[in-house]
Amino acid sequence: MESIATRIAAVRERIAAAARRAGRSPDEITLVGVTKTHPPDVIAAAVAAGLRDLGENRVQEAERKIPALAPRSAITWHLIGHLQTNKARRAATLFDMVHSVDSTRLAVALDRHVAERTRETRDTRHEMHAAESPVSSLQSPVSSLSSPLLPVLLQVNLSGEATKEGFELAGWEERPELCDAFFADVERILTLPGLAVRGLMTIAPWGGGAEAARPTFRAARRLRYELGRRFPAADWSALSMGMTDDFEIAIEEGATIVRVGRAIFGERQ
Ligand SMILES: *Cc1c(COP(=O)(O)O)cnc(C)c1O
Fold first, then answer.
1. Residue 101: beta bridge partners?
2. Segment 185-193 mean pLDDT
3. Which residues lie across from 153 on neighbouring strands?
4. Candidates 58, 243, 244: which one to mutate for ligand 1, based on the most atoms within 8 Å of Cβ?
5. Phi, psi of 88 (to 5 degrees)
6. Ligand 1 pocket mutation pick from 11, 80, 239, 246 by most atoms within 8 angstroms of CB
7. pLDDT given at position 206
8. SS (HEC) of 195-245
9. C-alpha dist (Å) from residue 189 to 206, 222, 256
10. CB of 205 closer than 6 A to ligand 1?
11. Which of 60, 134, 150, 179 has the most C-beta neighbours closer than 10 Å?
12. Is the shortest distance between the CB of 166 and ligand 1 below 6 Å?
């Protein structure tokens, strides 16, 4: 098997090529390496190869792995999987960004725990400054360590698959009742002082090949445009979409964050 460094370089090259095809700059796109099921030593190899944004989809698994991967300031951790409200406190202290906010109830729960997170982050930073020099030049643009707010994305289900989490918005352009419900939720979430909404996250339908994902990605981009029109004071710049099988299509359709697991780490156990 190729080394992890080689695989990361190959993924970055494909990201850059897809961006150029779409007339975009590769710098607009953040690569999140999805490390679920992989042990800390494998993840450490990816960090050594320059990967700075990592994604996990379960709080319990992340709790075992994140502390094993110090220094904390060198990595931006993204929660990309469904989060139960009763784990919001743990998620808010572990992760730098949550992609999977899929209900107002969860947003409210996260918001309630952001003050604790700010305190813990400050303590951790203090310890790190005492122990070693900071690596701020390596920090990702979405890193939140300098901000007291928790950056979040609203996860939207645009494919209508019952198994997908997210605000239900399949066919939203023809369904004003779905839109009205969602926009009411957004209005409420934007008032939460601890959260910094940054945009949307979506997952394409399973199967059908990369091209089959394009309509879903396009719908996400159009929805983001509509949100920008309705809520112009908020930040809708991030669009987290695209995985190993479809990240190039996602970039052509406007993704600013791609979440790639297998193309970097191989098949999951
Ligand atoms: C596992 C996972 C990924 C990565 O999937 P790959 O196909 O391995 O690239 C991306 N996003 C989410 C939400 C995931 O759960």
1. 154
2. 98
3. 199
4. 243
5. -60, -40
6. 80
7. 86
8. EEEEEEECCCCCCCCHHHHHHHHHHHHHHHHHHHHHCCCCCCCEEECCCCC
9. 29, 20, 22
10. no
11. 150
12. no
Q: Which amino acid is at 239?
A: L
Q: For residue 71, is the peptide bond before it cis, meaning its omega torsion is within 30 degrees of 0?
A: yes
pLDDT of the residue at 124:
57
Measure Cα distances from 27 to 47, 50, 149, 198, 257 in Å: 19, 15, 24, 17, 11
165: CA distance to ligand 1 center in Å? 14
DSSP notation for 37-98: T--HHHHHHHHHTT--EEEES-HHHHHHHGGGG--GGG-EEEE-S---GGGHHHHHHH-SEE
> Whose alpha carbon is nearest atom 11 of ligand 1?
259
- How far is the centre of ligand 1, averaged over its atoms, from the C-alpha of 34 (Å)? 6
The DSSP letter of residue 256 is S
Structure tokens at 217: 């990605």
The answer to whether the CB of 253 falls within 8 A of the CB of 204 is no
Please report, for residues 22, 61, 158, 240, the alpha-carbon distance to residue 253 in angstroms, rounded to integers and kept in the order given. Answer: 8, 32, 14, 11
User: What pLDDT was estimated at residue 2?
Assistant: 82
User: Which pLDDT belongs to residue 63?
Assistant: 96
- Does pTM surpass 0.85? yes
Residues in the chain: 269
Percent of the chain's residues with pLDDT above 70: 88
